Structure formats: C-alpha cells, structure tokens
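So, can you check this one?
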Amino acid sequence: MPRLRPSLFWRARREISPMAAKLLPACRDLESAANELRWIREYVRDTKSPIPDELRVWQLAEKRGRGIPLQYVLGTQPFGDIEIKCRPGVLIPRPETEAYTLHLASLLSQSSPPPTSLSILDLCTGTGCIPLLLLHSLLIPLRAPTPIFLHGVDISPAAIRLARANLTHNTPALNRFPHASSSSCPYNLTFSQFDIFSPSLITHLQHFLNPQIHTPTPTGTGTGTQDQNTEPPTKIPDLLVSNPPYISPRDFNSATARAVRNHEPRLALVPQQQEGLSPIHRYRHDRYNCRPEDVFYARILEIASVLKPKRVLVEVGGWEQALRVVRLVLENSTAATSRNNDGGHKSQEEYNLVEVWRDEPSAGDKGERVEVAGREVVVQGEGRGRAVYLSRV
C-alpha cells in the first residue's frame, strides 16, 4: 500500500478537521475521511455516554485510523432498511449481500400463486443479516397473511450470540408491520450453533422443518402474536440460502484487503484446514470433487439433495467460482439422472432454473447467457459474479 503524502494530512487538518487527519491512514482520501468523520459525529450525537462528545469523537477516529473497520468502531451497519449490530469476531455484512437478499425477497414475494407459508434455512448465518432482511422485506409486500419460519445456523458461538442480539434489536421494527401483529401471519426466527459438516446437521434441519418433532429453543426466537412453539407447516424448505466461507488461503493472503485480513474472522472467509485436510476430504465421494475453497458448496448441495428446497442461493467470490459452482450443480444433476432414472426422466435433483447473479442482480441487461456443462445459464445484473441461484419452481 503506497504511503500517503504529508500534504494530504495538512489538507485534512486545514479543510476538514484535525480528526479527519486521524482517519486518513484507513480512509486513504479526503472525501472518505470527511464522510467517516460525519458518521462518527452522528453516532456520538445519537448515543449517550458520560464521556464528552468531542473526546468520544477523537477516540473513535483514532481507533478507526488504526485500521479497525468502521462497522466495528460504531457497532452497527445499515443493511437494507434494518440495522445490523457488528462485533469483532463476526463477519461484517457486505453491500453485495444486501443487494441479492433484497432481490431474493422480491422474487419470493411475487410468487404465483402466493405462498401459504414460507420456511427458510440460512447456513453460515453470521450476524443473521440475511434472514432478518428477508423477514423484514417479506413482511411488507406479501399479498396475503403468510406465516414465515426462518432458521439460521453457524459454527461460531460468537456469531450465534450476535445473530440473536440482532433479532432482539430488530424485533420492534418487525412487529410494527400489520401482518406481524396478526394471528394469521406469525413469524418465527431462530438461530442455533452447528457445524454444517456435522453428519447430524440434516437431522437437525429436518427437526426444524418437521412440526411433529421440532421443539424450538426459546432463546433467539421472534414471533408476532403467535406462541413461540408455532411450527412450520411443511417438511420442504422454500429456500436454502448461504454465504459460506469461499476464499482460498492464497487469495486471502494476497488479494484480500488488509483490514479484512487483520480484523475480520478468517473462519468466516476461508474453509478451514483440519489435520492437513480440507473438509471435503472427510466427505469426499463420487458425487462431488472440487477445490478446497469450494468445499462448502459441495456440502450445501449435498444438504439440498436431501431436503429438496424449492430454491437455493449461495454467495460466491467472483465469476470463475460462480461457474465452478454451476458446473457442480449441473454435473451432479446429470449423474443423479443417470443413476436414478433409467428411462431418462428428469431427476428430482435437477433444477428448472439455474442463474448467476452479479453484484447488482436487479440492474442491467436481463438477456445475458453463458453455457456451462452443456446447459444455457442466465446471468442477471451488473458487476462481478456474486451468487448462484437455483429453483425447482
């Protein structure tokens, strides 16, 4: 990273504030420093503390200047129309994740015929930002009162604690919607700590989906007016969504921003190596064979092959990875058809729709196509490859 010219610090002190100069090592330019100083001042103005305001601004600016992400400094990040609490040790929500979550909510709300209920599973939930924004966005436009059941899992106890705190933080906003206060439209969002590579994960998720055997944990549960023991009415999830670790160790060390490497949890970014092996080596079989950074996608597709969700969405780290995930999906569907359907009929694992979404899936040309493994795949939006979307409906 190039060194900043001393004149830039002088200009920051003279044109903005001495505190802006504190921010320059992290912000790198005057405009960003001015914006972040404004956000810090707004935060100090809106929160109470026995410490004098100017001293708090100075302390926060100094902290940010050391490279600590602003979201950790302020403790929150806007995400759609909700606010997500952020803490060190849990991945900060990204704008690209927000964009595809809103696009996904729009698709779900426009389903025809309207759903009578919705069950949503979020793997590697982190802050809980995806299910929370989905819930908030779905409570607004649904054309009929629709019970919504969501469950997020993460291996990190710190992430689960924060996800539950975010549910509590956003519950007043969720309960303001007319549907949420109606007995005909409850919502239930729960979180649990779980390793998605655990052999018992699928049973755990089936317990959530099965009204006869699932008993929700009271902690971290949000409802409208209905009792917290309300159960989802279907064993088939409407959506399986995940923003898993997907960065290779090499890319983490060479291509990831310094603030991310130094301050955000590697566990949420890079698939762990255990005893010299990536998780795929413990689960390797004839169905999947992938790079170590793609191992979570293989596991998610394995889970999807059992639970048969109507829709699947996974975040990816760029165009090449998106195409690799699509190839995993299509090659597995072809193999499943060959194994299970001697007459050549479509396998239940085959998806009617396979799409790659870019950073802004709602923007740009809707007509882009790419061929992968002999199948034409739709590409939505503008920017880098950001998500793979699969649909059986």
